[in-house]
Fold this sequence. Notes:
Rossmann fold, five-stranded parallel β-sheet, single chain
Amino acid sequence: MFIIGITGTLGAGKGTVVDCLVKGKGFRHHSVRGFLIRELESRGMPVNRDTLTAIANSLRAKHGAAYIVEMLYHKAAAEQQDCVIESIRTPGEIDLLRSKGDFYLLAIDADPRIRYKRIRERNSETDQISFQTFVRNEEREMHASDPFKQNLAACIHNADHVIVNNGNISQLNRKTEQFLKQIGFCGKKTKTNE
């Protein structure tokens, strides 16, 4: 069972890589964001970047730095299929997954202006923000000395591979294919889109 963790900056193309792995390679998708949204909804709380961050930090502080990813891993292990865990955000999550065997961490990054344009176009509930707020949100999530808080810079630094995604979807899919070859994954062919 291959486990690929996805980390990276806001709007870099993490979801597109997940789509490539799920639709083109048959991976099962386990989403930290989805886990957190379900948690917020069960508590009757609004879904926005602030509440997502707050609930994630709260759960990690209460149950451990890798708690969220550990819950997703247990689900993946029960399925015994290649899987992708999207939105790795703490070094503790990486440590837990590295202890499980065939785990590879892929980071996605891109120019901030390109990323901001992408989030505005995808138009999710957390993306209707100014560029200044976008930058502030990312700065808040980039570094932390508290092991229970997000530290994207450390996650990107500890990735097995980093894709810089300043191009189109077809180019990103090709870079994803190259990464899969590097780690020795020989699954189904991915359909590339322009």
